[in-house]
Design a protein that fits this description.
- Among the domains are: 229 residues, Aldolase class I (TIM Barrel, Alpha-Beta Barrel), CATH 3.20.20.70; 93 residues, Thrombin, subunit H (Beta Barrel), CATH 2.40.10.170; 101 residues, no CATH class.
- Helix content is 23%, strand content 27%.
- It is built from 15 helices and 30 strands.
- α1 packs parallel to α8.
- Pfam families: DUF3656, Peptidase_U32.
Length: 647
């Protein structure tokens, strides 16, 4: 029986980062094209993507292009042309949100449903599968039972993808409109202003302060390291790392971390296999704690938990390093928690003020004064560091030694190859067969001269044949099918080996097959609902036609069309502020004297002049952040009307 393939899917801000993601073990890489990606500042030209494709395909790794914004009518034709260019550049699949694209003349490129499609139910996943999407990126908020239920509803060939690491958007993806309502910058069009990372006063209906200057919509970062096997058993086959804005060091480190974890799982369980070729070795030990993070959570995978928020700060608090022992006029002395810990010029330190605000301290110069003792000279004047005193606990959130290590070559990826040298009538033939079963043979004429020292000649011959150091291959075995040991000059053997490697690379390129485009079912599958509100993000007439074809009777335009001018849900989220502040009625059940007195009444979030209302849907265990479109933003839009009567 064929093994189930597990795919490690890494992000790339640009082609160079994508190439290193492949080198560090990614089975697939997702990257933004020239435009229409949900990370507007991470665009790449077609030539760079083609360069990444060529490198990835050497290892049978795949490249996915993100075209996952909602599109206006006048953007559909440029998007169609871009998709053809991406296809011609060798891209393997498109990650999309806008169903209007399915109504266009597209190349036979595989289509994946973006997490922006808000896929939380078996019915929605099955519909997208039946509409012709081959890979489904599930909502981050699902638990294992919900994932398993979706898996059971789909055909075996449909791949489920899940985010396993990186920043968490507090809203269900595709269901956040705060940025657009307040600034005109739409998260659904790749330009989120990140209102979720701001500090808010939380007040009740009477105006009493429930929480002061807390980042109550800011989540910790996702880390599913401990849950990979459970996710595999629930049906996940593609493991996605968030981070198309992240730097090279992050992608190298986090890709290597999950490569090791998945390889360990595959080694234990032979029913699973890697979905690309080669074996990766690392010059460092991966450690997710070394990269920017807001501390970690596994979110809702194992059920609702109270500590998923990064309420004190959306910044990176780093790892504990020591405490302050003395303060001078221009320096701070520290004692490290571990005597082996070393501080470096350029390190970033931080600490919490008495108000629980994170304050940063960049080291200009670090001097060791004894075992585990350091004097550091900050870049900024010492007077500028609020509440820094003897005994203050200090963390490190930037380790320059670690960053410098990752600036160097830090991984090698090699494909196993078996070499066999045989005699021909007028010379020799070298056959290379790789771990994927691809084979290439080259022949060359050469005289046969008996070797004077048979053992030495054979050892030298094996040594020259096995010199694959600058290629993507590593020799697993060298077979010599010779009547007797012959003397062969190094120049001849080296040329024969180089020609054989080139022939094998060509054969591998010819053998590479892009994943096929799935065909939609006929007649068209019915959409699970017969009416769509602005939450469906329908922003062009082709998308409207798509849903009408699939049985939807009433279709409202996307929020970005400014039809919704009154109070509306600007964010829908599974995160609950009441629950995180221990104010949830369900938490109060069974608590003597409290049950019945705690109700899910609305709360307000206040940041400066901005005010948002929190309403709680306890039946669904969801929170709605309510607000209005600002008048200045409302004037800038072009309304769309798809329905006959107002829904």
């Amino acid at each position: 029986m064929e093994p189930h393939h597990l795919e490690l899917l890494a992000p790339a801000r640009d082609a160079d980062i994508g190439i290193e993601a492949v080198n560090h073990g990614a089975d697939a890489v997702y990257i933004g094209g020239p435009s229409f990606g949900a990370r507007a500042a991470a665009a790449n030209d077609i030539a760079d993507i083609a360069r990444l494709v060529a490198h990835a395909h050497r290892f049978n790794a795949r490249i996915f292009a993100t075209l996952n914004t909602i599109l206006a009518d006048d953007e559909l034709e440029p998007a169609r042309r871009q998709i053809w260019q991406l296809y011609e550049a060798g891209v393997d699949a498109l990650i999309i949100q806008d169903m209007g694209l399915l109504e266009l003349d597209l190349p036979p490129i595989q289509l994946h449903a973006s997490t922006q499609c808000d896929i939380r139910t078996p019915e929605k996943a099955r519909f997208l599968q039946d509409a012709g999407l081959s890979q489904i990126v599930l909502a981050r908020e699902l638990d294992l039972a919900q994932i398993a239920a979706i898996r059971a509803a789909l055909r075996p060939e449909t791949v489920l993808e899940f985010f396993v690491h990186g920043a968490l958007c507090v809203a269900y993806s595709g269901q956040c409109y705060i940025s657009h309502a307040h600034t005109g910058r739409s998260a659904n069009r790749g330009d989120c202003s990140q209102a979720c990372r701001l500090p808010y006063q939380v007040t009740d209906l009477e105006g009493r302060i429930v929480a002061h200057d807390k980042h109550v919509l800011s989540m910790k970062d996702n880390n599913q390291s401990a849950n990979l096997e459970a996710l595999v058993d629930a049906g996940i086959r593609s493991f996605k790392i968030e981070g198309r804005y992240k730097d090279m060091g992050y992608v190298k480190n986090i890709t290597a971390h999950y490569r090791r974890l998945l390889d360990g799982l595959i080694e234990r369980r032979p029913e699973f296999a890697r979905s690309s070729s080669g074996r990766t070795t690392f010059a460092f030990t991966p450690d997710p704690n070394q990269n920017f993070n807001r501390e970690f959570t596994d979110y809702f995978v194992g059920g609702r938990k109270i500590d998923i928020g990064a309420f004190d700060t959306p910044k990176n608090p780093g790892l504990p390093i020591g405490h302050v022992t003395r303060l001078g006029d221009k320096w701070v002395e520290l004692e490290t928690d571990s005597p082996e810990a070393a501080l470096n010029n350029g390190d970033g330190l931080c600490y919490y003020t008495l108000q629980k605000e994170l304050a940063g301290l960049a080291i200009n110069r670090a001097e060791r004064t004894g075992e585990g003792r350091w004097r550091v000279f900050p870049r900024d004047p010492l007077a500028s560091f609020k509440d820094l005193r003897v005994g203050t606990q200090v963390n490190r959130n930037r380790d320059m030694a670690w960053l410098r290590m990752l600036e160097k070559p830090s991984a090698e990826r090699r494909i196993g190859v078996w070499l066999r040298l045989a005699e021909t009538a007028d010379g020799f033939a070298l056959t290379l067969t790789d771990a994927d079963g691809v084979s290439a043979t080259v022949t060359a004429a050469h005289g046969k001269e008996a070797a004077k020292d048979a053992a030495r000649a054979e050892a030298t011959l094996r040594d020259h044949l096995g010199k694959l150091g600058t290629t993507v291959f590593e020799a697993m075995d060298i077979g010599l099918d010779l009547a007797q040991p012959w003397f062969l000059p190094a120049s001849f053997v080296n040329a024969l080996r180089r020609d054989a490697v080139a022939a094998l690379e060509t054969a591998r390129a010819r053998a590479y097959a892009r994943p096929p485009r799935a065909q939609p079912v006929d007649p068209p599958a019915a959409y699970p609902e017969d009416s769509l509100s602005y939450l469906a993000n329908v922003y062009n007439h082709r998308a409207r036609d798509f849903y009408a074809k699939h049985g939807v009777k009433m279709i409202a335009a996307a929020y970005e069309s400014h039809e919704e001018t009154g109070e509306a849900s600007l964010m829908i989220t599974k995160h609950c502020v009441r629950y995180s502040l221990s104010l949830c009625p369900k938490q109060a059940k069974g608590v003597t004297g409290v049950q019945g007195t705690v109700r899910a009444a609305p709360l307000a979030l206040v940041n400066g002049s901005e005010k948002l209302t929190l309403r709680f849907d306890c039946k669904r265990c969801e929170m709605h952040v309510m607000g209005k479109l600002k008048p200045a933003v409302a004037k800038s839009g072009v309304p769309l009307t798809f329905y006959r009567t107002r829904p």
